[in-house]
Amino acid sequence: MADDETLRERFRHNASGIAATTVTGIWLAALLADFGWWLPFMLFGYIVIIPVVSMLFDDEEESESVYVESESGSVRVEHGGSSEGSGADDTTDALERLRTRYAEGDLTDEQFERKLDRLLETETPEDAAEWVERERTGRETERER
């Protein structure tokens, strides 16, 4: 039963590639066999069949991960990755890692509170971008003084 589920998942993940390979194989075989319908089939396959399969089976949602470096305040945004995770899961994981570091004594009370505040302020990519802009503006203001 587990193998069937894995096969289903693999088919679902690779549906567009399978459709493209099938369409290409059929029109190429028709061309080589000198059937006159190979060109209309090729056009129909690439214009209709493959896009429909792609819309039905491919996940268009790309997860976006935002990482804020604690010391420098720089932000790194990663696109892609698995679509299974959500922003809430990422925040929960980050919070759990933060708690673990605090419990192991890697962070002082002040560092833990500062990182916790920063984590809660930057739950979404938009929040992280706003935080970076505030930090950048604050640093520029300090330099001017």
Rg result: 25 Å
Helix proportion range:
55-70%
Question: Would you tell me the overall average pLDDT?
Answer: 76
Number of strands: 2
Series of H and E elements: HHHEEHHH
Strand adjacency order, main sheet: 1-2
Unreliable spans are 82-86
User: Describe the biggest sheet?
Assistant: 2 strands, antiparallel
Estimate the strand proportion.
5-15%
Structure description:
Helix content is 69%, strand content 7%. Strand 1 (64-68) and strand 2 (75-79) form a beta hairpin. It has a two-stranded antiparallel sheet. The protein is elongated and about 80 Å long. Helix 2 runs antiparallel to helix 3 (38-57). It contains 6 helices and 2 strands; from the N terminus they run αααββααα. Mean pLDDT is 76; it is low at 82-86. The protein has helices at residues 2-13, 15-32, 38-57, 87-103, 109-121, 125-144; strands spanning 64-68, 75-79. The N and C termini lie far apart (68 Å). With 145 residues, the protein is mainly alpha-helical.
What topology emerges from the helices and strands here?
Blueprint: H1 2-13, H2 15-32, H3 38-57, E1 64-68, E2 75-79, H4 87-103, H5 109-121, H6 125-144
Antiparallel strand pairs: 1-2
Helix pairs in contact: 2-3, 4-5
